[in-house]
Amino acid sequence: xxxxxxxxxxxxxxxxxxxxxxxxxxxxxxxxxxxxxxxxxxxxxxxxxxxxxxxxxxxxxxxxxxxxxxxxxxxxxxxxxxxxxxxxxxxxxxxxxxxxxxxxxxxxxxxxxxxxxx
Length: 118
Description:
By secondary structure, this protein is α+β, with helices and mostly antiparallel strands. The chain has a single domain, classed as Glutaredoxin (3-Layer(aba) Sandwich), CATH 3.40.30.10. It is 42% helix and 15% strand. It contains 6 helices and 4 strands; from the N terminus they run E-H-E-H-H-H-H-E-E-H. The protein has helices at 13-24, 41-51, 53-56, 62-66, 76-85, 107-114; strands at 4-8, 29-33, 94-97, 100-103. A 4-stranded mixed sheet has the order 2-1-3-4, with helices on both faces. The longest helix has 12 residues, at 13-24. It is globular. The model has no long low-confidence stretch (mean pLDDT 90).
């Protein structure tokens, strides 16, 4: 069975939901707590290329408002730097299984990753 890699933070409700979803289906999980270890640049680039920077940012989060991003115009490189320092800027969790990726709480994408349909 193919495992999944979940990028999130332990105190994020959506990250815990993803972890629970895969555990209930006995899918091997590698959880990367972004507060402990930042995401590799190449890994983050994969998500940016697939979804775009705007789709990865959680514009409704407190972290987004605290960073003043509603009012700032930043380049993608500057945003990546901020994301590295503050992972709560992302729509978590980011989930990867082989070449399949998902952003945020997306059970349909998770089901597709493990090959179940319901």
